[in-house]
Design goal:
With 220 residues, this protein is mainly alpha-helical. It is built from 9 helices and 2 strands. Helix 1 packs antiparallel against helix 2.
């Protein structure tokens, strides 16, 4: 059988039927998918921040020390899990409005699968870049929204008209939760864990940009 994370990209409609069947036979079927794929962004971020690094100014590379990177990645991993739980609870609450009666566990599983593009997009963290992150996250958001609109009526067994309105509500709240969880995680890490950075420059006589002699501007 094709893994769900593959079929969601190749045969999304068939994938949702299979997922629904699996969740009916085993309510915790989604756990392996969630716990394993959520590691992709965390591990990629660790590699990207400690080994690849990023550049804020010309001829300078910035890396995180291993301990600081590990702290950030652990926080990111748990933020992903908590975000999925929050969205699952919201979907469960919203089902009362749309005449659907799934369990809380099924709703969490549904969100775990809808979020699959974001797990895969985490590979972009191997090469930390602001514009690459924006492009990849934008593409992941679009495809995740597609999975949501296609999958929700099938998974919840509701008419497509109600499914479209339901999906729009979930999408709006999901983007809000995503932004708040990511920003909150980074702020908590910066303020509570005192991250340590390592900077390297091509001019080894001055370890950091701040220690380089500053040019005095010529008088006008």
């Amino acid at each position: 059988m094709t893994p769900h994370f593959v079929s969601l990209f190749t045969r999304p409609e068939r994938a949702w039927d299979d997922i629904r069947q699996d969740e009916k036979s085993n309510g915790l079927h989604y756990l392996g998918h969630l716990l394993l794929l959520a590691l992709i962004p965390a591990v990629s971020l660790y590699v990207g921040t400690t080994y690849t690094g990023w550049s804020l100014v010309k001829n300078e590379d910035v890396h995180l020390q291993n301990t600081s990177a590990l702290q950030l990645c652990v926080l990111l991993y748990f933020a992903i899990l908590i975000g999925v739980l929050i969205m699952g609870a919201f979907v469960r609450w919203m089902t009362r409005t749309f005449d659907a009666r799934p369990s809380l566990n099924e709703c969490i599983g549904f969100i775990a699968y809808v979020s699959t593009p974001f797990y895969i997009a985490g590979l972009a963290a191997l090469y930390p870049s602001r514009w690459l992150a924006i492009a990849i996250l934008g593409a992941a958001s679009v495809y995740s929204a597609f999975l949501l609109y296609v999958g929700l009526p099938r998974f919840m067994r509701i008419p497509h008209q109600k499914g479209a309105l339901f999906s729009t509500s979930v999408l709006a709240v999901g983007l809000l939760v995503l932004v708040n969880m990511m920003v909150g995680t980074i702020h908590f890490w910066q303020l509570s864990m005192s991250p340590e950075y390592e900077r390297t420059t091509q001019d080894q006589s001055y370890p950091t940009v701040d220690e380089r002699p500053q040019k005095v501007p010529e008088a006008l």
